[in-house]
Design brief:
Elements (H helix, E strand, L loop, with lengths): L3 H12 L14 H13 L3 E8 L2 E8 L8 E7 L16 E2 L4 E3 L7 H17 L6 E7 L7 H12 L6 E5 L7 E4 L1 E10 L3 E2 L9 H21 L9 E9 L5 E2 L2 E10 L5 H19 L3 E10 L2 E2 L5 H10 L4 E2 L17 E4 L13 E3 H15 L2
Parallel strand pairs: 3-6, 3-7, 7-17, 8-16
Antiparallel strand pairs: 1-2, 2-6, 4-5, 5-18, 8-15, 9-13, 9-14, 10-12, 11-13
Helix pairs in contact: 1-3, 3-8, 5-6
Length: 380
């Protein structure tokens, strides 16, 4: 029905433009951003390319309503994809199988929503109708490793003093409304001891033993977090995930490193959690040993929570026919707050289970469903 052929064609064109995140060995998002800029400009958009990292621009397209509406709708779709290493299909040549699935890197995560926005705006232009509300579409870089594209878009909105009334952050949610997820605080603790021969351990300072004690202390801390009152996003967690130490079987190790992944719940600013966790680890090592310690902050992002009673959430839940839910994975929604966004949901076609896979695909039925839901929203 409707615009299926156009959506498949447009999505295939976007898949053919590689935009693998450079942090995963890819070429980056510039080619896709420039192509999108041309396409949205041709449809009447006011387009800006804003360089966030060298050669890695956000693309922002603004479509102003002629109805006098002061309402702003926003769509944030990340433009990067994960690596194409070990893929079992040609990553940049889209194909449709006999089960109604479109295959290719980015098909599901998350070029689909960009293709659907383009096709909807093409249909609007062809019909010579006007937009009911103002619309802003952002293709933001870098989501697969850190959300600095979304952070830059949030800052851009702040600088322009623009407030989006209803923002949709595109991710594969099977067209279910997602209204919450945890944030992160990630650190690496570097322990510096003194090496010596392992037959004379008292002459050294064992960095591995100090780091191992810290790992157990973090495990205890995690148990304490589970005893705290549960938040709307469940419990915070603190998990040691990587440990490096030792250079030889007969040498007391003079250095060790432990990485810790702390999940942040609603009401905990991630920068405060990061600082507190860093302080806890540094003080613990200092108390337990004579080792020196330094902490590297790897990244942090806030949790995201949207009140499910908000009209935008309830309306999208009604249209989608599926209840709102919370998820375990993080998204660009962490970057937005009430200073530039009145209500936000995470929403999009396809399943997170198909994202990042060796054979990434999306059901064409999901594309059709998303087009129908976007049409209802844009015309609401």
């Amino acid at each position: 029905p409707m615009a299926t052929e156009e959506i498949v064609a447009r999505l295939s064109e976007l898949i053919a433009i590689p935009s693998v995140n450079p942090d995963q060995g890819g070429c980056g998002e510039e080619g896709l951003a420039k192509s999108l800029a041309e396409r949205f400009r041709a449809l009447g958009g006011e387009v800006e390319l804003i360089e966030v990292r060298p050669g890695r621009p956000n693309m922002i397209a603004i479509f102003r309503s002629q109805t006098g509406s002061s309402k702003w709708l926003g769509v944030d779709v990340h433009s990067d994809t994960v690596s194409v290493e070990n893929m079992s299909i040609p990553p940049f040549k889209a194909s449709v199988d006999d089960q109604g699935r479109l295959h290719g890197r980015g098909s599901c995560d998350t070029k689909a929503t960009l293709a659907i926005c383009l096709v909807w705006l093409e249909a609007l232009k062809a019909s010579q109708k006007t937009l009911k509300h103002n619309l802003i579409v952002a293709a933001s870089i870098g989501e697969e490793t850190t959300s600095y594209g979304a952070d830059a878009f949030a800052n851009w909105l702040r600088e322009k003093k623009m407030v989006v009334d209803e923002l949709l952050v595109a991710e594969p949610t099977k067209c279910r409304v997602v209204h919450g997820h945890k944030g992160t605080a990630r650190i690496q603790v570097n322990v510096q001891g003194v090496a010596c021969h392992s037959s004379l351990p008292h002459l050294g300072e064992n960095a591995l033993v100090a780091a191992a004690k810290l790992v157990l202390a973090v495990e205890d801390h995690n148990r304490e977090l589970q005893q705290a009152p549960e938040t709307v996003l469940g419990h915070a967690t603190a998990v040691p995930t990587i440990m490096h130490a030792g250079s030889g079987i007969n040498i007391v190790p003079d250095s060790a490193a432990v990485s810790i992944d702390r999940r942040v719940v609603f009401g905990e600013p991630s920068h405060e959690v990061t600082a507190a966790l860093s302080k806890f680890c540094a003080e613990f090592i200092a108390q337990q040993s004579k080792c020196k310690v330094s902490v590297t902050v790897l990244s942090h992002s806030n949790s995201f929570y949207q009140d499910p009673e908000h009209a935008f959430v309830k309306q999208m839940v009604e249209w989608s026919g599926q209840p709102a839910e919370k998820v375990t994975f993080g998204t660009n929604a962490s970057s937005y707050d009430s200073s530039m966004c009145r209500a936000c949901i995470i929403f999009g076609p396809g399943s997170i289970e198909q994202a990042h896979q060796a054979d990434e695909w999306i059901e064409i039925a999901e594309l059709e469903k998303m087009y129908r839901l976007l049409d209802l929203w844009f015309n609401s």
